[in-house]
Amino acid sequence: MSPVFPMLTVLTMFYYICLRRRARTATRGEMMNSHRTIESNSRTSPLHAEVVQYAKEVVDFSSHYGSENSMSYTMWNLAGVPNVFPSSGDFTQTAVFRTYGTWWDQCPSASLPFKRTPPNFQSQDYVELTFEQQVYPTAVHVLETYHPGAVIRILACSANPYSPIPPAEVRWEILWSERPTKVNASQARQFKPCIKQINFPTNLIRLEVNSSLLDYYTELDAVVLHGTKDKPVLSLKTSLIDMNDLEDDDYEEKDGCGMDSLNKKFSSTALREGPNNGYFDKLPYELIQLILNHLTLPDLCRLAQTCKLLNQHCCDPLQYIHLNLQPYWAKLNDTSLEFLQSRCTLVQWLNLSWTGNRGFISVAGFSRFLKVCGSELVRLELSCSHFLNETCLEIISEMCPNLQDLNLSSCDKLPPQAFNHIAKLCGLRRLVLYRTKIEIEDYDVIASMIGAKCKKLRTLDLWRCKNITENGIAELASGCPLLEELDLGWCPTLQSSTGCFARLARQLPNLQKLFLTANRSVCDTDIEELACNCTRLRQLDILGTRMVSPASLRKLLESCKDLCLLDVSFCSQIDNRAVLELNVSFPNVFIKKSFTQ
């Protein structure tokens, strides 16, 4: 026999095995077709009437551009029928998140990313919406009116927010997800992703967004939920599949990466017994630790079940110096924290943002965890952690003596008196209180205290401080000469005629970021002072000013060689022609000119 024939036989068998893997659910006749296999596909029976509904209300969100006592640019605009769509442009009646692009990540104050963050978790913000009726979703449409493309994940929840009976179990299911992609057009669109079918009805939908690839703020107008009251009937549909795709991940039972599976892995004591631990026995302990440092948390838990040696390495507290639990917000609970407790005695960075809501984490469970794992904490991220109360802040102040970085943004359920405990944290270097209920009657007094006590302050965000005046700004400028970032956006009581902005420019030569958003009094004199004194400036936002000319901007751009962001949206003297001319002269600067149609 020719040697060719045994090789053909082997190839034939290999092809047959691959075909069997791809066609496990197919009939015998269909498996013989080398180009086709059966793929499960959901199809709604025509007997089921479809329910179409707009969001009833917005129940939770991580950030928005607007203020808490207004409707302009707030997430609450997502409730109800469209206000703007199908029009395109910048409209105050839409929902806008707080940031866009990579500008915030390029600031000196930007926090370093956590290690071991799963590559498929790229969400930056979220909004949760409720609908009148629970349905089995067949479609979710998002009406985007300006710079679309931020939505990267859509989830559905089994809990009914309007039910008087607390659910025995709360489940979140991903309907659709995708990595961030660049959408070149800024015009309005109706985003209609193809969602998967779930086995429970829902009236709670969550959108997660990533705005890092956007050239400006994304604006959302409404969300439409399509669905049926009865569970749809599944049907089988034949579809073409590329037989060159020989990965069998899609056809084998996947090991879940959620916290349910993590909990099982943490508590597993049955390890495989073998004659030895392979070549790992011959490697130095430190080298194995370095290798395992590249694994995500679920992978670390899986590896811990392979042998006693790797279990010892995977449970070593040195593997948990940085612990990011935000990607697992949908499953993380008291049990999860309890299983992690013995491994986190040396944790220094801990991210619990978005976790614990709807009863998943209790005050008692959080307190038990911090009492064991809080002594070495340097950084604690608790953004949108609505389980927090005054007791939690008291525990943080007592159990975390080394804490330097505390993020409580959008913890809007904390009572004002709870923040008194923060004063006990003497080593704090970064504190985020965005969208909290901390009560400040006189911002000038606060600014004066900051100027007197925080001589080495580098970053200060006073976004939408409603009553700070030129007196407070003068105290800041004289007391904090090292300031590199200052956000005075939407501070209506500041007026250029008092000389406050010119004084800032003269006294803060290290400024790299200055936001004077929506201050219509900013004038050429202020811009020229910045050009003369703040040559390290990288980001400047003067959106909405009526008194700045193209000539003063040209002086600024010529002087500030590192300037990379200049927002002149709605600046009445800066027309599109002026922006075009500046772009030609300074091609390395992103000059933003927004519009409304």
- Overall outline: globular
Q: Helices and strands: which structural class?
A: alpha/beta
- Low-confidence regions: 1-45, 235-258
Could you estimate the helical fraction of the residues in percent?
Answer: 10-25%
Largest sheet: 9 strands, antiparallel
The total beta strand count reads 22
Number of helices: 15
N- to C-terminal distance: 78 Å
Give average pLDDT, whole number. 87
Radius of gyration: 28 Å
Keywords: Leucine-rich repeat, Ubl conjugation pathway
Organism: Felis catus
Protein name: F-box domain-containing protein
Domain F-box: 277-332
Task: List the defining traits of the structure above.
597 residues; alpha/beta; 24% helix; disordered N terminus; FBXL15_LRR; leucine-rich repeat; F-box domain-containing protein
Description:
With 597 residues, this protein is α/β, with parallel strands linked by helices. The chain is 24% helix and 19% strand. The chain is built from 15 helices and 22 strands. The chain has helices at residues 4-22, 28-31, 259-267, 285-292, 297-303, 308-314, 334-341, 363-373, 390-399, 443-453, 470-479, 500-507, 524-533, 550-559, 576-585; strands spanning 36-42, 50-54, 57-61, 95-96, 125-146, 151-157, 172-177, 189-191, 202-209, 219-228, 234-240, 322-324, 349-351, 379-381, 405-407, 430-432, 459-461, 485-487, 513-515, 539-541, 565-567, 590-592. The strands form four sheets. Strands 2, 3, 4, 5, 6, 7, 8, 9 and 10 form a nine-stranded antiparallel beta sheet that branches. Strand 19 (513-515), helix 13 (524-533) and strand 20 (539-541) form a beta-alpha-beta unit. Helix 10 runs parallel beside helix 11. The longest helix has 19 residues, at 4-22. Residues 1-45 and 235-258 have low confidence and may be disordered. This is F-box domain-containing protein. Residues 277-332 form the F-box domain.
